Amino acid sequence: MIHSGLKFLFLSLLAGVLFSCEEKALKISDAVPYEREIYELINLNLSQAEYQEANLPDKLFIEPFHENEHILSKIENAFPKEDLEFVRKQLRDTIAFTLKGKKLLLSEKVRLISDDTLKRMFNDAIKTEKFSAFWDDYRKKFGKGIMLVYAKPIFSKDGKTAAFYVSSSYGPLSGGGSILLFTKKDKKWKQVRTLSWWIS
Question: 161-169 and 175-185: which strand pairing?
Answer without folding.
Answer: antiparallel
